[in-house]
Amino acid sequence: MKVVFLVFSPSGHTLLTAQNFMNMLENKGVSCDMINITKNDNYIQKEDITHTLYSDIGEHCMLVVCAPIYAGHCEQNMLRIIHMLPKRKNGRIPAILLVTYGGVHSSVALEEMGKGIRSRGYIPIMGIKIAAEHTLTATFKKRINRQLPGEKEQQVLAEAAEIAVNVLNGKTDAVDAKKALEYAPFPKRLMFRILSQEKIHGKYKKVAINSQICNGCGQCIRACPVNMFACVDNKVQLIRNPGHCILCAECYHHCSAGAIIHPYIEVARKRLSDGFAELENPQSAVYH
């Protein structure tokens, strides 16, 4: 039996964190496998992926779901995938929820992931939040958490790995961490129940390409985690409905010609006080 990691990582921080966590488990003798859905159209673009998940995940003794946080929520693609997991009918398998975020607000992400995974017959035994560079702030006056994840985050992952192994070895019972995952203040929890990621970000999903200065380098195609771009008739074009954009700004930050028009950058600059936004304390932690 194996532990399966399910990962979505637009900027690479979630993947790096998941790999570090997986290495810790493997060093303790745990067999692991990883499914990276980033840029994978079998997951990103297909409507019904339950059969794909069933086939790819296979037999497993624990599931680790790894995603970034956007606007206080688990990123919408991973949240959709959680709700499409094959429902467990016989026996409940423990699950770990791992998020990376820019350190400003993790809010309800772990809580809503817990609800989703619980509805599929898993036991959410633990939530892990890991602070990482806030990639939206790359062009701000101050880059938030530029050097993270770092040593503190490694310590948090090591603590989580010890807990996971104890559950796998039967030394500790698999207990639902429901209350622990509801750590956000109640007013914030209530606010984010009303304000979904789409309600917060939806009207800014108008990313475009200035064809007059685009040099066709294809960096945006390679950088986009949800495959919004492609080269058509020797021109880089948007090929998906703008509503599928997740506003990660990877295209914007990788474009050498400055041809990407990204309406949310200046909005984020204001919301994050040009990089001087107040950060959570602690920024990285285990909830179980």
TrEMBL record:
* Segments forming domain 4Fe-4S ferredoxin-type: 205-234, 236-265
Recorded hits in InterPro entries, A to Z, give: 4Fe4S_Fe-S-bd (IPR017896), 4Fe4S_Fe_S_CS (IPR017900), Flavoprotein-like_sf (IPR029039)
SUPFAM superfamilies this protein is in? 4Fe-4S ferredoxins, Flavoproteins
The source's domain of life comes to Bacteria
Q: List keywords of the entry alphabetically.
A: Iron, Iron-sulfur, Metal-binding
Task: Name the Gene Ontology molecular function terms of this record.
Answer: iron-sulfur cluster binding; metal ion binding
Write the protein's name.
4Fe-4S ferredoxin-type domain-containing protein
The organism of origin for this protein: Johnsonella ignava ATCC 51276
